[in-house]
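G., the chain you wanted modeled:
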Amino acid sequence: MADGSAGQREWQVTGMDCGSCAAKVRGAVERLPGVGDVDVALMAERLRVTLDEARTSPEDVEKAVRGVGFGIAVKGARPEKPRGGFVLPDGAFPVAADSPEPEDEAADAAQPSDTPSWYQATKGRLVIGTAALLAAAWASNLFLPTGIAHWAFVLATLIGLIPVARRAFAMARVGMPFTIEMLMTIAAGGALAIGEPEEAALVVFLFAVGELLEGVSAGKARDSIRALSKLVPKTARLEVEPGTRDVPADTLRVGQIVQVRPGDRVPCDGEVVDGVSGVDESPVTGESVPSLKEPGGEVFAGSINTEALLRVCVTKAAEDNTIARIVRLVEEAESARAPTERFIDRFSRVYMPAVVGAAVLVAVVPPLAFGLAWEEWIYRALALLLIGCPCALVISVPASITSALSTGARSGLLMKGGAVIEAAARTTHVAFDKTGTLTQGRPQVTDLSVLEGDEAGLLALAAGVESGASHPLGRAICAEADRRGVTAAVAFDGRALPGKGAQAMIDGALVCVGSPRLAEERGALGDAVRSRVAALESEGKTVVIVLRADLPQGLIALRDEPRDDAANAVAQLRTLGVCPIMLTGDNSRTARAIAKGLGIDHHANLMPEDKVAAIRDLTSDARVMMIGDGINDAPALAAAHVGVAMGSGTDVALETADAAILRDRVTDAPATIRLARGTMVNIRQNIAIALGLKAVFLVTTLLGITGLWIAILADTGATVLVTMNALRLLFFRPSGSSETTGQANPDIVSARAEHASATT
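Predicted structure as tokens:
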């Protein structure tokens, strides 16, 4: 970085409790020279900037953040305690901001791991202190002369107001004069000036209570995300010579073997090398029924082994396992802000100065123009100032989005940010890929029709071309060859023919395995072959033709059954007022047979570019969600308003498209829309609460009905109400109904018995 080139830097910022806090951090940093692309994530407590260190050093950024009252530490370092706020060491537990720093790692380990009570935190002690001072002042008012009681309220106000005023002037020095701290300082100071010390002291106390409640509410929202990372156990039973040893799970390396006993959580993403058991994947995918795991099966970190000992080979490092990627995606999603959130941010920047200007007019116009009492109208102006803070409005959207992302992650539904949630809520059409999405993605060979040679030779040619294929049809052909004990022919120069099939050189001849369309293009589809293809396709089967030097060698028919929940998903979408449609590259007869059984419209014989064209046609007058496997359908996923990848925790499902369905359930498509719509309803409720309360108290303040302490309740109370309302989304059920848990999977019992007999 010495050459002056800009690079990205990231820190953890502690002490942010609301949207205004994030705005303060952003405002303090973005004014520095050489700083760009400032991204402040409230719930993830993250500050990320593009920094030109030749103009501004990282230390200058940290100094600016500390200068406005927040703690900051480089990503990965121990979090720093903010001035007068909470800190979350190890990313998990709040502790008092002024508790002593441990001197070494041993001391750090000795720190209590339980979340302290509210009264142990600095903000809690501030509430207790201001309450005690206020109570003492009230007591003095009862038993002491009036003059002494007056000064008791003044003292209570000043002691509680000093830390607030210090933060207010720190913000003003960096060019942010319109903050709740400044408004609070002016209001309380003004109340003292006009002879209202009792009300000023009460306002200071209520402000401290509001600050505490905002911190607790923000902590609850963050805990819902951090709970995901706690699913992975801290230790793992690593196989070493001559036995096993417990080691930290985050030290496991790819290729090592770990043992997972019944009842244990799986410590890593891996592959079963020995044992048969049911594994409860509900913590990862939301799937309530245990999944059968045999040798060769994938397991995910955080899932629970329910039946028998499994030996698992580690396939991914701790920082790359499924849970870690989900947590990263949920945290990163906070940066993808919804259009509504961006609008509110712009609105709030105008709103507060406008209210301040209105307060000035309220203070001076009635006395000057109409000869009314200065003290009364200054008092009303001070109350109006307190109503001017947009904290509740600013937090209304991100609080709901964060809760929705957390709920979705627990249910196996990932949406990458507020923009995706808002787009999903407006969905009017859902386009499904067929193979692997509406169908199980595990087609099986049903018919072999030999034209030249025998069945073994036909399968050997087809399996040779499809060796290493990722397409379900290719894998099914190779699996059938293995089942029959047929060795795949040796192939060279293999390549895929998108939307048509694959080809390779075998024994010096070009062999193609592809759709009837490919055979038609190459002049190899005679009347007899065409008639046989039509008969098989009318049964809902997919037909591929094996060509050798453009001469047909035979036909292979496969059938991929619809998923058990596909018809239910289609019905749920129609209930939601969403039109489902199937897009497939398969032939029209097979597509028609599948679509008829599901009750869905369809388009068949689509090449990848045809799917993109179909999506674009739909998006011209509809809001379209496309659901596919995340690989072959990538162009169509990108063309839709919302692209959703299906896949049980695979890299593609987690890292492509706008959203991902982890548990391979088609009913999760309507669940995603249901969650998105529920989130938008929650956001509208929050905005109504934030603006409604302020509007009501704005009118009552101007009419002289309510005063300063009610005004501060209108601000902090609205912020707490908005946050608590957003937290309701943590209990939202996207499926629309409760799911049973703990059901036995009969396949697990039989497979375990077979494994036991095979190993004895």
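The longest strand covers residues 6-14.

Shout if anything looks off.
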